[in-house]
Every structure is written in structure tokens, then in C-alpha cells.
Amino acid sequence: MHTRHREPQLLGNEGTLERMARILAARNIDPADAAAPPDGPEPFSPLDALLAGMPPRYQAAVADHPRVLDWVAKVTDAAVAPSRGARRQVTTGPSLLMAGVVGAGKTHQAYGAVRALVQSGVGARWRATTAADLYADLRPRPGVDSERELAAVSRCPLLIIDDLGAAKASEWVEEITYRLINRRYNYELPTLITTNLAIKDLRSYLGDRVASRLAQMTTRVEFEAIDRRRHSAAA
Q: What's the Cα-to-Cα distance from 12 to each of 22, 29, 145, rounded to whole Å?
């Protein structure tokens, strides 16, 4: 499906202003009121905008693991302002690999870490995906530019990859994972990775090249072997 391209119209265009005046008159809106800035604070704070893009289950997530909080502090310190007086943005920084059994709280900590970044006053363009969804999005198919999608994910300033190692291993999975991780490694882009695999088993699943990059670019955290989801349900 092709979308017709329309040239942007300037608000100073006479025809545009006339159309706006007619629309306001039809709705009994005083043009002076329409042009006046709203009173009070902005309707959406940076945290509101962040929560709007988060899965409901993790919108109240709080990072409390010492290693995760240390990662937040380092990424916050590395953030820079694109211009004088502008909000500091995540550009480069360290990465974090969280390993542990299913339900150990790794995903909760990852989303909590992003919330903590925003609450510290730092802005971030970010993306979150499971490894399985990532591979599905990047798999070549008609009508989709998978190379362009890979480039977009690779360049995202802050990326969460959840459940790395859950998808079936294959040469294609290993190659795509390597290309993604290698680009983020080269450009020092902060990446939050969770996996249900033990760290010692990552090499056999991901291959030597990926495992080597992860060893150099991430701080590794192994969570206790407790399924917190079952524990919460039992309580």
C-alpha cells in the first residue's frame, strides 16, 4: 500500500489560515483562545511519555538490584545535552547482561532501570523486544526491508533484548545476533540483555563471536535461582 506524499503546509499560507478560521468559527472557538498557550504545566511529563510506551505489567517496575542501579548511574553520567539548555540524552554507555531462571525478576529490573534513567532527568530514545520477536521482525520476507530494520535496531540509543537464548538456535540466528551485538559494541550503545541461560552456557548457544563481544561490553549479573512469579502467586 502506497501512501500519497503531501507537501507540508506553512501556517502562514493564506489559504491555510482561512480554512483554520472557518473551522474555529464553525466550532464557536475564539481564534484568540485557540492561539493562547494553555495554563498550567505540560500535560505529559517525560515519565508519562515513557510509561505510555511500556507494557502495563512493567509500568510500575522499580530497579533495586545494586548492579542495575550502578548501571543506571553510569549511563546517566555518560548522557550529554545535544544543545545548551537541552535535556541530556542517552548516547553511549555500558551494557548489562542479566542471567537467571524464568521468573527471577530480570525483565522487571530492566524496565525499572529505564524508568530510573528518566526519573534522574535523562531522556532516552529506547526500544524493548524479546529475542524471539526481534528475529521474527528481522527474518527476510516479501515487502519488508529487513536490513533497514536491523540498522534501526542497531542504532537505537537504548535497547532491551529480553530472553536472549529462548529462540531456537540456528546459523541465521547466530549471524543476526552477531551483527546486532557487534554494531552496538562498536558504537558503545547501552544494551540491557536478559537471558534464562546460565552465563557459562551462552557461548555454546550464541557462538564464540557473540559471546566474546558480550564479555567485553557487559557487566554480568546472575540472579538467584528463585522463580519470583511462582513465589508471588503462592503468597
A: 16, 20, 38
